Amino acid sequence: AQKVTQAQTEISVVEKEDVTLDCVYETRDTTYYLFWYKQPPSGELVFLIRRNSFDEQNEISGRYSWNFQKSTSSFNFTITASQVVDSAVYFCALIPGSARQLTFGSGTQLTVLP
Amino acid sequence: DAGVIQSPRHEVTEMGQEVTLRCKPISGHNSLFWYRQTMMRGLELLIYFNNNVPIDDSGMPEDRFSAKMPNASFSTLKIQPSEPRDSAVYFCASSFRLGEAFFGQGTRLTVV
């Protein structure tokens, strides 16, 4: 069975602070894919990133960066110099093996205060 | 492309009534997913289709729920009869590349 744990339910930061959202996953498959999605107040989920289990390189996209560590089964997401528009619920998700459906974590509500 | 289109955006219905949620996926996407989101249970997969064929419906709560995908551009999720515990936001998503799903804006269902 697979599982995604986002232990941080809510985080509040002040604008321009850096913030890291934690994600820990469990799967028995050696091949799997990890994802982050953003759900802004408008409600739709927006795809941010996909990583496969064989690629542990960290990735940076503008103010966003992701740290994938197989040794600790973690796939953490950092927002640098946060902005009010970053306020949203962020979901980490997993697709194990040959499955096609996403297994989501419970989400982290990020609030960035002006 | 307009993205994944869901209708209606909001639905309020009385317990026992039939509810039909509709979804138009992005053209060219070969997978379609129905998810349900509640505060208590988070995001749950109900069913997904690949090339219009239902692949995994193990998340469908019970026989009151049914989903169809008669063609590549349309899917429905039906609840009959509806119950208050079905109140949730229902999302449709489509994808072409594994896991990179594009979600609709959801249908907020309230059963009173």
Structure keywords:
heterodimer, A: 114 residues, mainly beta, six-stranded mixed β-sheet, four-stranded antiparallel β-sheet, 12 strands, globular, B: 112 residues, seven-stranded mixed β-sheet, 11 strands
Structural class of chain B: mainly beta
Derived structural class of chain A: mainly beta
Report the span from N to C terminus of chain B.
36 Å
Uncertain runs of chain B: none
The Rg value of chain A, from CA coordinates, equals 14 Å
Shape of chain A: globular
Distance between termini of chain A?
Answer: 41 Å
Query: Portion of residues in helices of chain A?
Result: under 10%
Q: Provide the residue-averaged pLDDT of chain A.
A: 94
Query: What is the count of DSSP helices of chain A, taking H or I runs of 4+ residues?
Result: 0
Q: How much of the residues of chain A is beta strand, in percent?
A: over 45%
Low-confidence stretches of chain A: none
Oligomer: heterodimer
H/E element order of chain A = EEEEEEEEEEEE
Characterize the structure shown.
The complex is a heterodimer of chains A (114) and B (112). With 114 residues, chain A is mostly beta strands. Helices cover 0% and strands 54% of the residues of chain A. Chain A contains no helices and twelve strands. In chain A, the strands form three sheets. In chain A, strands 2, 5, 6, 10, 11 and 12 form a six-stranded mixed beta sheet that branches. Chain A has a four-stranded antiparallel beta sheet with strand order 3-9-8-7, with no helix packed on it. Chain A has a two-stranded antiparallel ribbon with strand order 1-4. In chain A, strand 5 (32-39) and strand 6 (46-52) form a beta hairpin. The mean pLDDT of chain A is 94. In chain B, 0% of the residues lie in helices and 55% in strands. Chain B is globular. Chain B has 112 residues and is an all-beta fold. Chain B is built from no helices and eleven strands. The model of chain B has no long low-confidence stretch (mean pLDDT 94).
